[in-house]
Amino acid sequence: MELKIIVSGALVFAASVLLTGVMRRFALSSGLVDVPNPRSSHTRTTARGGGVSVAVATTSGMVALYVAGIVSLPLSVSVVIGGGLVALVGFLDDRHSVRPGVRFVVHAAAALWALIWLGGLPPLVFGEHLVELGAAGYLIGVLGIVWVLNLFNFMDGIDGIAATEAVFITCAGAVLGLIAGRAS
Hints:
This protein is mostly helical and 184 residues long. It has one domain (2-183). Helix content is 73%, strand content 5%. It has 6 helices and 4 strands, in the order αββαααββαα. It has a two-stranded antiparallel ribbon. Helix 3 runs antiparallel to helix 4 (100-118) and helix 4 crosses helix 5. The longest helix has 29 residues, at 2-30. It is globular.
């Protein structure tokens, strides 16, 4: 199973790279670009909408992993639907500016969707005591997920930092997943 996961990850990465090239050409030819301004961290016109390629590849990979019996239905549904909502509002924001309040509501809905499908946050462990978070755990989880989404979106405006962070987090998650799989 580990080999299937590694191969799946490599295929998703390759698909992301290929689709990013396609999306870049589309963005440049259709005027979907970010022109630098005094607040920009980049100095030349940059294509927008590249996240679509990563979202399509990741979603396809998650569906393939579910079909292969490697990931659970709740994880698949939380990532495909929740991630799809976030990707959609992100793409719409790249095309036409979406108001922050609308983005916040979509991000919060996607986070809540994922938490519901995944069963909420796990209990906190203090020594031998378990503290169930209940409804507060959902609120904490939604706020945390929305904060991370917005932090990543902020980094996306800095050339290369969001992609580097995404690669690092993906690799770290894969290693931890493989370790956890061996520990069980």
